[in-house]
Amino acid sequence: xxxxxxxxxxxxxxxxxxxxxxxxxxxxxxxxxxxxxxxxxxxxxxxxxxxxxxxxxxxxxxxxxxxxxxxxxxxxxxxxxxxxxxxxxxxxxxxxxxxxxxxxxxxxxxxxxxxxxxxxxxxxxxxxxxxxxxxxxxxxxxxxxxxxxxxxxxxxxxxxxxxxxxxxxxxxxxxxxxxxxxxxxxxxxxxxxxxxxxxxxxxxxxxxxxxxxxxxxxxxxxxxxxxxxxxxxxxxxxxxxxxxxxxxxxxxxxxxxxxxxxxxxxxxxxxxxxxxxxxxxxxxxxxxxxxxxxxxxxxxxxxxxxxxxxxxxxxxxxxxxxxxxxxxxxxxxxxxxxxxxxxxxxxxxxxxxxxxxxxxxxxxxxxxxxxxxxxxxxxxxxxxxxxxxxxxxxxxxxxxxxxxxxxxxxxxxxxxxxxxxxxxxxxxxxxxxxxxxxxxxxxxxxxxxxxxxxxxxxxxxxxxxxxxxxxxxxxxxxxxxxxxxxxxxxxxxxxxxxxxxxxxxxxxxxxxxxxxxxxxxxxxxxxxxxxxxxxxxxxxxxxxxxxxxxxxxxxxxxxxxxxxxxxxxxxxxxxxxxxxxxxxxxxxxxxxxxxxxxxxxxxxxxxxxxxxxxxxxxxxxxxxxxxxxxxxxxxxxxxxxxxxxxxxxxxxxxxxxxxxxxxxxxxxxxxxxxxxxxxxxxxx
Length: 684
Prior knowledge:
The protein is an alpha+beta fold. About 45% of the residues lie in helices and about 10% in strands. Helix 10 (about 250-260) packs across helix 14 and helix 12 packs antiparallel against helix 14.
């Protein structure tokens, strides 16, 4: 028998004929390992590998881990490690010199390391779970106990613990997603998904009424939520791999994934139509957002399905981690005390970067956007210019104003501008499509008329309406897009008005689009003044133009749209920090003028669109004259078709006529007469 065969025999015997279990590592029995990766709970059955696989499994994992520990940012070419796990680094490189110096420091006393030195080594390597370290101290585990004699062996120990902590008795569920490919989800995520509260997202359209405009926009909140949960795990794991000193634990990874998965549980029928249009009109005194609904629904999901025990089984601490998950979705759960240093309770300030993954309140760069950019563009047929994979590659945590923030490489600033430009493009071409907004408005009108007559049973048999179901999560669980069909096919005479509006949508007999304008400069219409706009337009009657129809405010709908890069009129890149290749730990700011002269000067604008509920010719003619005259009075921009729909009004404002502004009043009178003749000819 050769030397290699004898070595394999000894290895197999040490592995108990191929059974690799937690019992194979003395001192780790019955220990919940939550230090890194996914969590194994105490008392779980042992994980076993076949005899042929076990030695190869350990060898491959340990060597791969040693190479990874050399540093993701190393500029040295990859070299296969030696048989003892030490890297094959050229002898004259800086990393080799560092290795030799560190080896001289460690080798003389490594066999005399006590439990405390071992704990310090594990903590520096990213294993900061106090329970693991306490177990090592309590059992007085030291390296000599295992007869490890080289630095390579010590690194193998670290790699084995790291990999074993991620092995599960319950297999990871694999889902084939059209955007991200085959994605793996943790068993706890599957338990959350397989509940009525989460499954309702299958029946809520991601883009609301846009499905009536874009036939491909049939996707729902369900698949978007799966994608966000997956991307949240990708980002937090990427940070953990690159920076073990951050001490990102398995609990942290799992909580971030759950927050991504559950961040949209609070959406109502037709998504943003519900909390953006319907609730403000149905309950104007209630300040309710879908993020608040998500937090309430998540708590209801956990309690009604008994998931606290399941969370504990997978190593979570419900009292702390449920709070942490909620905070990631909606921010601090309590109003922060003035001048308080840290408003969150789920995680300490040292892990502040974890709050920037699912819903980034600082600059808007988060995995929620990454998924809906890719998913919505895919279903809408719009080009997506942002590549989140590059952000994953270059993301690092740096110190910024005494907080740990997620930063990226300086060369990625252009990619981030592309991200916000993609957001703006999606809003202009899809989310704020003029016909899509008309359909959302009509559905809102139908829901408002049906609201008093729709009853939804909640907890303890109490009845709720569409607008009040947000107060009871059992009732809200039953409220989905299906309410549209319930009204449409109802025979209740109380729902006649609502039913007729929905029938108009089915027959494409929609409210008519009148026109669009926008305020000039920094002038903006404040939200509290939105309600008065239809009355203003109805009163803006041109004095010298005969109109056959009398316009009323209730005939008009004024839609005010705020277009921006996600932070109102601010440049979100001003709130992003970057690092340079020469110094990975120093965060720097990159100003707009350092990037390009072609970037926008302003990052927000307001669009004002007017629709008319009536469709007869006389009313439409009247409302167009009123609208153009109102734009002139308010000194807003001229509607694009203003010269066609109101040729008698547009010449009254010199700057609306481009090059004609310096010409005489006689010219305006002649031009007006000519346009009037054209208009009369067209109407004959």
